Amino acid sequence: MGQNNCCGNREIDSNIEISLNHSKGLQESASQINYTPSFPVISSENIKKITKIQASWRGYQVRKQFATILKNNGKKIRFSNAEYKETSKMISTSKEREQRPPYTYRSGAVYIGQWVGNCRDGVGTQTWSDKAKYEGLWGNNRANGHGKFWHADGDIFEGNWKDEKANGKGMYFHVNGAKYIGDWKNDLQDGYGSEIWADNSRYEGFYKQGKKHGFGKYVWNDGSFYIGQWIENRISGRGIYEWLDGRKYIGEWLNNNMHGVGVYTWKDGRRYEGEYRFDKKHGKGTYTWGDGKKYSGGWKNGKQHGEGMYMYPNGEVKYACWKDGKKLRSMDSTLSIM
């Protein structure tokens, strides 16, 4: 992400070195056989910073993860146990919901609203000394039901609460224009929801414990998109990635890499169908040029490797043995390629 992505991965054949960089555009040729696009990978540093959200793997600014913003802001300013205990110790025999004068906590927070006995219960507003504010329903001395919370930094959450945590449906609006609308569980995105950023990049799909998990679609602001499976905030499983220039990959993924079996196509008619390993052609596969010529055989780290054959539109077939993208020798027609 940002400057930590792997957009500059390269594959080299025996004649051509191809530098790939999404931000600088593509440099393609119909004769380039070992062209495999880089799918930028989230670095280990960013994995440690999973309090961030994946807005893009192509140089866009990393954005905060809504769930963690909510959780961390909550740790700073809202719903302390000290306040809960303070009012729980109040002596009140009232069993009816009633409106009372404002109550000021030792922390400086002020509650204005309804009570039942020594518990905040019903409709009420609590304002903290740093200007953070909750307005909504209360039950059993805690925020319970529908409510709206204004964070001191300008972020806003509105939705359902259970025991002072976001649970159920809710909307989080970040001061920078980003927003999340969807399901929550214990202050984390959990269930189905959508994220939209100020640059119009967006994700819609499933979450688990604050991370993209399950089926979802991510659309970048240039129109490129991925639709498919996610595991713990990473593209893993089966899915489709389509670039704005018409390139498309359909197949298996692992940790944001093309990994497994897939089909990669270019707008000019080129096509690779076969195995990938960590974003590179690896194993058995067939590469087809736009003019119908094909190479079918072994690959290793994005290069022709092992036994393979060229098949020409006129029906001619040539067999050869390769090592790291270099042809070692021609072979007879007795070898078994696929």
TrEMBL record:
Q: What is this protein called?
A: MORN repeat protein
Listed Gene3D superfamilies: Histone H3 K4-specific methyltransferase SET7/9 N-terminal domain
Does the UniProt entry include the keyword S-adenosyl-L-methionine? no
* Alphabetized UniProt keyword annotations: Repeat
Name the InterPro entries for this protein: IQ_motif_EF-hand-BS (IPR000048), MORN (IPR003409)
Q: Report the superkingdom from the record.
A: Eukaryota
What's a Pfam family this protein contains? IQ
Which SMART domains did the record assign?
IQ, MORN
Does this entry carry the keyword Repeat? Answer: yes
